[in-house]
Amino acid sequence: MTRRMDAIIWKALRSIRGTMLTAALAVLLGVFAAPAGAADTPLGPGDALKISVFGNPDLSLETKISEDGNITFPLLGPVKLAGLSTADAEKKISGMLTGGGFLKKAEVNISVTDLQSQQVSVLGEVVKPGRYPVDGKRSVTDMLAMAGGVGPEGGDIATVVRIRDGKTTKQTVNLGEMVRSADMSGNLDLVNGDMIYVERAPKFYIYGEVQHPGAFRLERNMTVVQALSVGGGLTPRGTERGLRVKRRDADGKQVMIDVKGDTVLKPDDVVYVKESFF
Prior knowledge:
This protein has helices at about 5-10, 20-30, 85-100, 140-145, 175-180, 225-230, and strands at about 50-55, 60-65, 70-75, 75-80, 110-115, 120-125, 130-135, 140, 155-165, 165-175, 190, 195-200, 205-210, 215, 245-250, 255-260, 270-275. It is α+β, with helices and mostly antiparallel strands.
């Protein structure tokens, strides 16, 4: 997916809110995942290759790169391809065939049928968690698209773990904010060994005199009144007077606080609706 296409998608979605945002994000990740070429991706152990030499069908070969980085090619024997791009691997085999006097001219074509050496892990609340090939330049949204997009229980936050120069770093990507702002600066480029973890969407809980007590998805800037609506509204015995929320303080201890209808809820808040005595 190109940066330009990313920006178009996010700009189109700026007005979307709530669960619609996550659903739209999941759909668009799947629809707009453009394939990235593998020509510049270094080959490595486990990669499956299909090799052909124009005009010489006897030299056609389907093989895998061994753990030591080699393949065994007709007439040539072991050929080390690990670390080379596809184009460089083609040139190497072509040069060995002509340099060894086997052919006057060798037009070699290599296609990667299974890229095992360059993969990124996509875990957490995605439709299809697993390991996916990094065939060319790939971003966070590209890899999420390959995993089917954010799942129904997924939130807007993705944690990206990367290893660069022997150092492991962790960075948080707010997918929802990218949609709202059309700012793609956080859409990180990924390489082999990186990992994406999509967090579960935050929830709130509501009980007492509401029609449908239980746990529900906490939307961005959701107020107590909105939470009451999600819970189906008050029962005939319920009252909005004296609403209370059980919330964890800075020390992790649960405390009960009095709230109003316009109070903004936090993750894991527990809303309690009292019974009216009048």
